[in-house]
Amino acid sequence: MSADKVLKQLQDSVLKFDSAAAVSAAKAAIQSKMDPLQAIEKGLVPAIEQVGDKFEKMELYLPELMLAGDAMKSALELLLPLVPKGEKTSKATVVIGTVQGDVHEIGKNIVSSLLMAGGFNVVDLGVNVKTSVFVDEARSKGAKIIGASALMSSTIGSQKDIVDYLSASGERRKRAFLVGGGPTTQDWAKEIGADGWGKDAVSAVRLANKFAKGR
């Protein structure tokens, strides 16, 4: 199979929100001995960027964005382990999770997938993550960015706790702290001293690009 055909299959799998097709296309890329970075950067990334643009223009909606993210993640799970360790593949490391007391993960998972597609090394801590774990993991992984999601009004206070913990531990200047989730707003982010607020997954990735080199 030609390289162009493999790249088109990768793109189409994301644009058609088809995880099974994404897996098949990733396997085809591997079988054809395509450079995994080429498969990611010329196959998957342009497609997810196109999906993001359509989402912002309201030409497609959250369910489609989620499915596109799932397709992307399915292909990346096969391709990323094959990228040679010596090659520079990551803009920065991002530690992301849903705050303590909150078990919602759909939005976080979409953001994680889009960040991975955008060239970030993503450390996904999961849900119900303790405040100290965000900071400790960011320190141990050398993360430039911490992203904290909260989907309930009763849990957004944990986002402020992370800011306070960063300050108390002397880590505040070293890392950008970004927040998101249904009950959060730009005003809330400003109030607690966060570096940015993502109203959706696409804007979250844009913020991550802004802070890829740190604060």
Key words describing this protein structure:
Rossmann fold, globular, 215 residues, single chain, alpha/beta, 5 strands, 2 domains, Methyltransferase, Methionine Synthase (B12-binding Domains), Chain A, domain 1, 9 helices
Could you characterize what this model shows?
- By secondary structure, this protein is α/β, with parallel strands linked by helices.
- The protein folds into 2 domains: 3-82, Methionine synthase domain (Methyltransferase, Methionine Synthase (B12-binding Domains), Chain A, domain 1), CATH 1.10.1240.10; 93-210, Rossmann fold (3-Layer(aba) Sandwich), CATH 3.40.50.
- 54% of the residues lie in helices and 11% in strands.
- The chain has helices at residues 3-15, 19-31, 36-56, 62-79, 106-117, 131-141, 157-168, 186-192, 201-210, and strands spanning 93-98, 121-124, 145-149, 176-180, 196-198.
- A 5-stranded parallel β-sheet has the order 2-1-3-4-5, with helices on both faces.
- The longest helix is centred in the N-terminal third of the chain and has 21 residues, at 36-56.
- It starts with a helix and ends in a 5-residue tail after the last helix.
- The mean pLDDT is 90.
